[in-house]
Amino acid sequence: MTDTVPSPDLIVGADGLARPLWAARDPLLQAYYDTEWGLPVRDEQGLFERLSLEGFQSGLSWATILRKRPAFREAFAGFAPDAVAAFDDSDVERLLGDAGIVRNRAKILATIGNARATVALRGDADHAGGLPDLVWSFQPAQTPTPRSLAEVPSSSTESIALSKELKRRGFRFVGPTTMFALMEAVGIVDTHLVGSHRRGSSGVWGG
Length: 207
Prior knowledge:
This protein is mainly alpha-helical. Helices cover 46% and strands 3% of the residues. The protein is globular.
């Protein structure tokens, strides 16, 4: 860590570890923060899942999406892009009737369309590595170093550019704010607060 001054937005738990307010009270969010959020995701299926869940999260809390993630995985064939790309009208109706997920027609259709766009990206002349290659190509030269939640950006030049490129390739529900959240979640940027026990833990950035 580079700073010993505690942030007002960090809480030290009974285990002695400092976490931001949003990850300090709910056990599910704490586990997600401690073991998953901000660690690099570089495989196609993993990135497609994260992109899909970030899209479904729009307008909702992340805790809601996390609680529904097992049901989402079951409903969307584990977020295997080829399987989701093959979904048809009967699958859409099945998903709209599934109380375990977020039953939003536009988001469901976008997820199926995004799976098809993901498959189409494979072997692309500009991004031979498909979706992971494209998404990680927008990694910035530097990452934010927020000391408070107010200092955590909600978008960036890179997330705006990523959003535009994905939309150009047929993706939907990939606005700049949603794409910045994706970049945070998969380690492309590190927005762990300075002083958090997770700051610099991704291996992508220093402390």
